[in-house]
C-alpha cells in the first residue's frame, strides 16, 4: 500500500526542518562509535573496578569478545508497574549467558508515581523527574563497559527520560523492555462514577478508597489508557520492543518469553555482528512520525505532545504541534480504550491489541513500514501477535478484531480523524484532545473564572460558585512556574459540572493527565503565564472562546483594551517537598511545544 500523501508530506517537512540538527546528531553517533571509550581501551585498573562485583561472569567479560549488556532499571516496589522488575536483572543475566553475552545492572533511575502525587506538592517534581531520569541514564552508560543496553521502564516520565538519555549514546543498540499491565480490576467507568460521587459529597472516603484499591490492585501498569500505556504503544510503533511485547500481563509465560527474546535479540544487534542496529539510527524521523500516528489512531495521552518532541530533539529531530494537527486530519481513530471508551488495555489486548492496530495502519498506508527496528525485519513484524510455542515464541496474524466496540479496521473507524487539534489566538497556542469529547462540546464560549491552583478550583466548586457555564482558567502551571504538574484532580469536578448540564471547559498552561477525557480542555498553553504570557492578561469574567472546530483560543476582549493590560505577576516559587532543588530545571526549561525540557538546553 502506498503511503498516505499527507503522512509523506509531514514526514518530509520534519526531515527538512531537522536536517542541520539531525546531521549533527548522526555525526555524534559516528564519532562516538569510533572514538568512544570502550572496554578494550580501558586500563586494567578500570576494568578490575568494573568487573569486581560480577565474579560469575568475570572470565567471559575479560575476554571482551562477547557483548556486555548494561541494564538500566527503574525498579521500585512503590510503583506497581515497576515492581514487576524486581527479579528481571538476575533472569536477564541467565538469558544473556544463553546468547553468549553477559549483563550487568549499569544503574538505576528514579520512577515516581503520578497516581500517588496527583494534586499534591510532589506532583511539581513529576515532569522534571524525566530530566533526572535522562541524566541518570547517561551516568549509567558513561562507564564504557557496555556494547548494548536494556532499558527497563514503563510509566509516564520514565520511558521518555530513558530515551532522552539513551539517545545521547545513540551508537549503542538498545531494547526497551516493558513489564505489562495489571489484570483488570473494577470497570474504569465505575471508578470514575465513585470519584464524581465523592466530589459531590454523596459517598465517603472509605467508599472511595475501596473503589480505588479495587481498580489499582496488583503489580503492573494501571489498566486505563493513560501515559504509561501510551508509552508502550509508542515503543511498538517505533520498533523498539520485541514485537507484541506491550500489553502481556506480568507473571505469565508469555511475558517471560518476551523478555528472554529481548535479551537474545540485543545480543545479536551489536556492532561486531552483521546486523548492527544502534538506537540512534532506529529512532529516525519516520519512527517519530509513527509514534505520533499511533497516538492519534488509538486516542493516546496528551502528555506525549510534550514527551515526543523532547525524545525527538535528543535525536536531532524537530517535530511541532502543527505536525500532530496535520497528521490528525488524516489518521483515523480505530481504538476506544478508557477514557475514550469503556474497555481497559486488557480488553484492548484481547481484541487484537497493537498487532491489530499496526497491521491495519500498515495495510492502509497510514504508517511507515520501512523502519530500522530492533526486530529481525521492518514494521511488518509488529503487525503479528506473539504466542508461546514450545520453548520459545512464534508470531501469528492477529486476525479480525475480537470486539469492534474496542478495535475497528482502518476502513471503518470510530472517527475519520485522530482527535487532536492545535488552538491559536490571543491566548497563545495550546492543544486539545477531542477523541472522548462529544461533538457538541467542541466549542465552548463562556465567562472565565481564574485560579492559580487546583485547590482553589475545588473550593469554588464546593461553594457552588461554578454552577454555571464557565471556562475554568488555571494559570501559572507551566514548566517555568512550578514544573507543569498534571491537573488530574480537576477531572471529577469539571465532569460533575458538565453532568449538571453546564457548558464547561478548562484552559491552562499546565498539563492534564493521560486519563483526561470528556471535558474539553485547552492545555499546555504557550507562552506560559509566568513571564507575561497571555493567560496572565485574563481577568475574571472575560468571555473566552475555545473551539476545536475553528482552532480558536481567544479572549473576547476589545483589542485596544487587551493591548493595554498589564500581566498579573505570578506567585513566588514554592518550597518544601524538595521543590527548591529543581529551580535550575524550571529556569532552563523550554516551552511545552519543544518538550518543556531542561536537559535539552545544553544542546540548543
Observed structural traits:
single chain; 13% strand; 3 domains; four-stranded parallel beta sheet; 38% helix; alpha/beta; Glucose Oxidase, domain 1; eight-stranded mixed beta sheet; globular; 604 residues
Would you spell out the secondary-structure blueprint of this structure?
Layout: H1 5-35, H2 44-51, H3 58-63, E1 68-73, H4 80-83, H5 88-98, E2 102-108, H6 114-117, H7 126-140, E3 148-152, H8 158-166, E4 174-177, H9 188-199, H10 205-215, H11 227-237, H12 253-268, H13 279-282, H14 285-298, H15 304-314, H16 321-328, H17 345-351, H18 353-363, E5 385-389, E6 392-396, E7 420-425, E8 428-433, E9 443-451, H19 454-462, E10 470-474, H20 479-482, H21 490-499, E11 504-508, E12 521-526, E13 543-547, E14 552-555, H22 559-564, H23 583-588
Parallel strand pairs: 1-2, 1-3, 3-4, 9-10, 10-11, 11-12
Antiparallel strand pairs: 5-6, 7-8, 8-12, 9-13, 13-14
